[in-house]
Amino acid sequence: MTQSMRAPLLFGLICILMIGTGVVQGPTAMLTILSYGLISAIMALGVNLQWGFAGLFNVGVMGFVALGGLASVLITMPPVGEAWAAGGLRVFAGLALGAATIVAAVLVQTRMAKGTVRNLLTIAVLVVGFFLFRGVYDGAVDAIEAVNPAGTGYLGGLNFGGENYQDWGFMALIAWPVGGLFAAAAAWVVGKTALGLRSDYLAIATLGIAEIIIAVMKNEDWLSRGVKNVNGLPRPVPYETDLQNDPSFIERAASFGMDPVTASTIWTKVLYCGLFAIFLVALLWMAQKALNSPWGRMMRAIRDNEVAAEAMGKDVTARHLQIFILGSAICGIAGAMLTTLDGLLAPTSYQPLRFTFLIWVMVIVGGSGNNFGSVLGGFLIWWLWVQVEPMGLALMDLITAGMADGSALKVHLTDAAAHMRLLTMGIILLLVLRFSPRGLVPER
Amino acid sequence: MDILNALVVLANFVLVPGLAYGAQLAIGALGVTLIYGILRFSNFAHGDTMAFGTMSVILFTWAFQAIGISFGPLPTALLALPFGIAVTGLFLLGTDRTVYRFYRAQKAKPVILVIVSMGVMFIMNGLVRFIIGVRDISFADGERFIVTARGFKEMTGLEEGLALKTTQAITLVTAFVVMAALFWFLNRTRTGKSMRAFSDNEDLALLSGINPERVVMVTWLIVAALATTAGTLYGLDKSFKAFTYFQLLLPIFAAAIVGGIGNPIGAIAGGFVIAFAEVTITYPLKKVLGYLLPESLEPASLVQLLSTDYKFAVSFVILLIVLLFKPTGLFKGQSI
Question: What is the value of ipTM here, to two decimals?
Answer without folding.
Answer: 0.90
